[in-house]
Known about the structure:
- The protein is an alpha/beta fold and 300 residues long.
- The protein is built from 12 helices and 10 strands.
- Strands 1, 2, 3, 4, 5, 6, 7, 8, 9 and 10 form a 10-stranded parallel beta sheet that branches.
- Helix 7 (175-185) links the parallel strand 7 and strand 8.
- The mean pLDDT is 95.
Amino acid sequence: MTERTRIDFPSRIGVWWASDTWPMAEAQQVARDIEELGFGSLFLPETAAKECLTQSAAFLAGTERLVIGTGIANIHVRLPSAAEAGARTLTALHPGRFVLGLGVSHGPLVERALGGTYEKPLATMRTYLERMAALPEQIEPGVGRPPRLLAALGPKMIELSGSHADGAHPYLVTPSQTGVTREILGTDKWVVSEQAVAIGGDDEDQLRRAHLHLEVYSGLPNYRNSWLRQGFDESDLVRGGSDRLARALVGMGSAEQAAEVVTAHLDAGADHVVIQALGNSPTDDPRPALRELAKVLKLN
């Protein structure tokens, strides 16, 4: 067994939250509150709004122990050398507290929103990682390679996350799929799984939020193929997902019931789980739900 790349998670459960519409000073306060509640990380996405390395620097500077991760940094947004150099700089300033999650994104976003070209995802990612690794060691000397996780859903991308990176960041997967990821990667790579939850309100409202969450993803081939591999069928892939899909992918009910789904990922082999508290948009304030979950999960 080889030694894993260093990530100093203060606890095994973190948060996934999009802060794009928040003024940065206010978003930093949310991060401080997340840290105070006992969560071990804050992972943030990158779509077509705020740049994730800049946000990561602000969150790292505004907190003391919280691990900050990109979930994910879009490889079509920046050159491989810029991604590697930026990650090294953040790691040099905050050792053990930054995780560079990388993903190939999605054809519609890359081609329509970014004006790029979306080619074979696996080959594109492999080439990108190889070019990152070619950055000379004198860029932040002594830091070494910052932790890299891949947004890996299919078996070949999961394998690549083990051979060319430090593990995987599965998103919108069941605990069973977390177990598949662990089995492919073995014991010496990181598995950081995302789990959406909808608590508060009645069942109808929770299910509404779950379908709203799945609305965009249900139209993207990457996720549709992932769900088919996980045992769902075409009847589940309606826009917003079927009720069966929504209930399987989103922890609903009481805070205790949602926490059980989070814990199931840990039991299946995840090293760390990041909770996405669903509201009416990904940028809604997650703290009310997180306060309830922190108590149930005994984080503080």
